[in-house]
Amino acid sequence: MAYWEDFIALPKTLTFYSFFPSIPVKEWDKIAKSFDETRRRPWKECLDFIKGRKGIALDIACGNARHLIPFACVVDHVIGIDASEEMIKIAVRNARNAGVKNASFVIGNASFLPFKSNTFDSAIFIAGLHNIKGRDARIKALKELYRVLKKDGMALISVWSKWQDRWRKHFLKEFFKLPKNFGDIYISWKKDGMDVKRFYHLYSMHELKRDAKKARLKIIKAWSVKKASKRHADNHFLMVKK
Questions:
Q1: Per-residue pLDDT tens over the stretch 89-127
Q2: Which of 46, 39, 1 is nearest to 189 (CA)?
Q3: Helices (H), the chain
Q4: Could you please report the per-residue DSSP string of 147-197?
């Protein structure tokens, strides 16, 4: 798509584009404001990855831009993409309020990234892969990440663990049933009086590594951390390279 050649070359000003307005993400649009109010602090793992990055960066499933804003402080230009129009509106506002001038925002689908190949020096895909329904679509998203990274480009990926404290018993019971889509679950957002069910596919580390390798991503580092869990890790991280 030739227009993305021009897009990447735009002056470093805050811009907003929409190419996929029809993606059905009503649940994320509904919770966007509440999400923003409760998800402001960037994760340490992301800040550590961002340090020293240069060139053009990509934040897939950027949400409210809590990780994009520190990314913008170190790279020449960063693009945030999210399927939720309301999330993108909030991300634009938050970036402007933070004084960010070198960012662009796109409403789009992680499984069909609207960027030319070999564009980005680095990328983050934080807590977004697990919201894509269907393994084929998730692998497609990882393949898209591989495609848009430059040679030797680096990326940080995170997903929720199925063995975290909150869901461990649920998935231990499911394990013996051997369901086809083991790891799939709908989790309700119940803040601010809402009850909005969102799709998740919770991962094991083995499964995450397998899918990343399927997308030809080279695993540099893999680790798990506890964010809300006390006993068992609730987030898996991969640092990968093209």
A1: 999 999 999 999 999 999 988 999 999 999 999 999 999
A2: 39
A3: 2-8, 26-38, 44-50, 68-72, 85-97, 135-148, 168-177, 205-214
A4: HHEEEEEEEEEEEEBTTSTTTHHHHHHHHHH--TTTTEEEEEE-GGG--EE
Q: Using one digit for the tens of pLDDT, what is the confidence trace for 137-181?
A: 999 999 999 999 999 999 999 999 886 666 656 655 665 556 667
Give me the domains of the chain, ranges plus CATH numbers.
2-241 (3.40.50.150)
Closest CA to 215 of 235, 238, 234, 199: 238
Q: Please report, rounded to a whole number, the percentage of residues in the chain having pLDDT higher than 90.
A: 60
Q: Give the position of tokens 């402001």.
A: 40
